[in-house]
Design brief:
homodimer; alpha/beta; eight-stranded parallel beta sheet; 40% helix; 18% strand
């Protein structure tokens, strides 16, 4: 039996979104699900208990970062990533592919893999399908990602075509290198840029192999959201319906709802934790920058409709004071709130699917939340 | 009835230390007690729930910092400091006297008060006995401190003599300015530098007025610990036995035990939280610098004898990784551990007093903890 399986519960009659459960060695993920990001074996500022309190079912961690520091062998010696970081629920690790292209310097890509310099100390390092798989086997994540090439957003058709074909060959090498298929599941990553036919071709190639789940990569890289939704519209229907579908790097509230409507089961993004660190909050009334002077004497909660720990106990005035004073507890409070906001949103999405009213939910949510432009959205 | 009263439970037959309870409007402090410091209305990196989990009975906050930012009027509008920071147990606020002398620039001291420039933005500000009292009345702390002058550590006899006499006159002005004597207690601060006769003179002057508690200030400012203990030996016996006695700015484990032996009831210090932020931990085996490379693959807890949240769940290797990677959760874990260490030490001190064996406890603790020199102590 595969390490990770998808259980379909129902399809929303109104939207086509699906409600399900992903079964993993460390427990069940109710889908559609948002996964908080714990890049360096910690979801920035949060404890595992707090993540459980807000009912995160799964977190994501980064192969690239952990490979560089503290090193995957150290984490293997510690008994794996779950034990190392005291998190006993599911973990998904990405392959490092995206970070190699976005963070490191002096990359040299060949068919074999990618040579790059560490963004920490300039060390020359190498990641390949085999190495990324070995690292993730050492980490012991429930869901591993195949090592892919992320073409630059401005890459032309020819480049993207060659790149996605390489990504397919690399995915096959990851499958072969995978040493723990019985307790870790390896997902493939669909590429193809903003070219509909290349997206379809990538799906065709990858689904010819038997992966237990499929991710869609290379989106949310600067393109307008309608373009991203168009790529989902051509891609998702071709993915097998009995496997989880994961849209990588997407975490703005509107895109989570639109993604679920298009049949996505899993999402991750650093957005809620990153914006929290400079005092930007997601609320039922849209974006709120709590640093702003107008909140100095506002003794109400970040979001009057929110029931999270932060909103039950602290005022905008207090949180603003903490953030202005560079106090860590301030970013703990905004981080907690933002993660809770997205996890609560996904609970509402699941409820709306259950009740066949996800399109109604979307319209109502968007009307309350505001326009998702640069002013009020993310 | 006074806002704060001291209940004497018993005196240790072996050491002379005293076990007691300080009753305040927000609850009871079991003494001898260590008070974690929450300078800017937050104990750095900790939540109120975590402070309760480690059973902190009282925390300290800083008048100087809150006067500068966010301002005492804002905190008054918020409903007081307890409500502002979501802490419903007792709070002690210092008077700002020490910070004016240690943090600000361009001080001008007169009989009226101290003119100084904010260390944040250079604004010209003024604190006086009346102003420091007004600020603390706005904050609503259970225990307020009288505004004192802290002479520089190298001040000569004449300077210290004049200074302590001014501190007495200022204490009298604080008493007069105090607007809420029924729900806030104002403690006086004994000064006198390292001069035994001046310490005695300061006590004599201050105890001629009726303060509900007395602090000893101007110690732990760089002098050798035996000198500090000598000053306690000449000072404490002259303080009224029916009032709490508070030794300001002392938090090294050995000095807490020695202070309790000399009849001190309350202590505060930034030491445990400050050293935690660069990865230095207090353990039953002495000081442990968890950043050090030798702990990279050490999968044991910070302190094998400790039962705190950090030690029950995380390894030295993980904490070292977090601190090297600048992850906030790392300093949350070391801060939690260090505060727990001192609070647990005080529980053991109280138990030893109850059982008339505090000198035995001291000898055993010092033998296990190691020498309190610069190598292993603080």
């Amino acid at each position: 039996m595969a390490a990770v399986t998808y259980e379909h519960i129902k399809t929303c009659k109104q939207s086509g979104a699906r409600l399900g459960r992903v079964h993993t060695p460390h427990g069940i993920i109710e889908t559609p699900a948002f996964m908080p990001v714990g890049t360096q074996a910690t979801v920035k500022t949060m404890s595992p208990e707090e993540l459980k309190q807000m009912d995160a079912h799964i977190i994501l961690s980064n192969t690239y970062h952990l490979f560089l520091r503290p090193g995957h062998e150290l984490i293997r010696e510690a008994g794996g990533l779950h034990k190392f970081m005291n998190w006993d629920r599911p973990i998904l690790t990405d392959s490092g592919g995206f970070q190699v292209f976005s963070l490191s310097n002096m990359r040299k890509i060949s068919e074999d893999g990618v040579e790059f310099r560490s963004h920490l100390n300039g060390d020359k390092l190498f990641l390949s399908p085999e190495k990324a798989t070995e690292v993730q086997n050492a980490l012991g994540s429930d869901i591993m990602m195949a090592f892919d090439e992320c073409p630059p957003p401005d890459a032309d058709y020819e480049y993207v075509k060659n790149s996605l074909e390489r990504t397919t060959r690399w995915a096959e090498r990851c499958l072969k290198a995978h040493a723990r298929p019985h307790d870790q599941a390896l997902f493939a990553i669909v590429q193809g840029g903003m070219f509909a036919d290349l997206r379809k071709e990538s799906v065709r190639q990858l689904t010819s192999m038997d992966f237990p789940g499929y991710a869609i990569g290379g989106l949310s890289v600067g393109e307008p959201k309608p373009v991203m939704y168009e790529m989902l519209d051509v891609t998702v229907p071709l993915l097998p319906s009995d496997k989880p579908r994961y849209l990588m790097g997407v975490g703005s509230p509107d895109a989570l709802v639109e993604g679920a409507i298009r049949g996505i089961d899993m999402f991750d993004c650093v957005l809620p934790t990153r914006i929290a660190r400079n005092g930007t909050c997601m609320t039922s009334e849209g974006r709120l920058v709590v640093r702003n002077a107008k909140y100095a004497r506002d003794f109400g909660p970040l979001d009057p409709k929110c029931s999270c720990y932060t909103c039950r106990n602290y005022s905008r005035a207090y949180i603003r004071h903490l953030i202005k004073a560079d106090e860590v507890f301030g970013i703990r409070l905004t981080t907690y709130h933002n993660l809770h906001f997205l996890l609560e949103l996904m609970r509402q999405v699941r409820q709306a699917i259950m009740e066949d009213r996800l399109l109604d939910f979307r319209d109502q949510f968007f009307a309350e939340y505001g326009l998702f432009d640069n002013e009020r959205g993310f």
